[in-house]
Amino acid sequence: MTEHGDRTVEATKPSARGTGADGATEAFVAHRNLLFTVAYEMLGSAADAEDVLQETWMRWVNVDLEIVEDPRAYLVRITTRQALMRLRSLRRRKESYIGPWLPEPLLTAPDVAEDVELAEGVSMAMLLVMETLTPTERAVFVLREVFDLDYNEIAEAVGKTPVTVRQIAHRARNHVAARRPRTAVAQAENRAALLAFQRAVDTGDMKSLLDQLAPDVVFLSDGGGVVQAALEPVVGAELVANLLTAGLGRLAGSAAVQPAQVNGHPALIVRIDGQIEGLLAVRTEQSLITGLYFVRNPEKLSRLDQETALHR
Hints:
Strand order of the largest sheet: 2-1-6-5-4-3
Number of strands: 6
Number of helices: 12
Shape: elongated
Strand content: 15-25%
């Protein structure tokens, strides 16, 4: 198995008919990026996704490869089951989390943005929507809508019948549809909103940024109880405008903002004295900012210095 930092690019589909540990390693490495993406979309946490991959590997290496017809499907099944167990324990941890919880952001390559379905699935906005699903609904939704697995494969992964999985998929799809952006968002809209934010930091000109706030805009800031952040969602254009005006006033002259592709979408990395201070992502609808997501928890910023490979 490769080291954590390698993030090996997905190779061609291998056979599991190799000998012993060599065959297991070859198959696992070839599908590692896919497995990480499955786990990350289910958990919203790269650190926990890496733990799931370690647990998957420990089980995979003890499988008799002679009975494995499709290594990819087998590995996805193990990963899904491990991620489901981890997701249930994460839910208990989040109940005691200080302030709003936001997904761990990932610096991603341009090819993620080019895959529209993958980019939407890993976006900050969609990961937050999926937080409102039950663990099983989330697993079924991810495997069906993002990875296009058939119902029989999903049923084996989540321990349900295909008929039940169809019902869960229908329920999850409706639940997500009611909460996702009502219109498809062009990358250019998010980029324009972030440019207004960058201009406000660089020049102190707040007008173009404030003009883009939707009346019901929501600002979420995740400090994890480690650094200062709003402990409750800030809702409404006036309140968010006041918060941004005060916050950007403190950043003026000391902060630098760096455009980046994060979770398949435009975002801004905020640095102070060269160190990453936070990550800002936005959700836009009809050219207005409906969501601002500011991740400040230092434990969630380690994936912004190096691209993480995602695959489906």
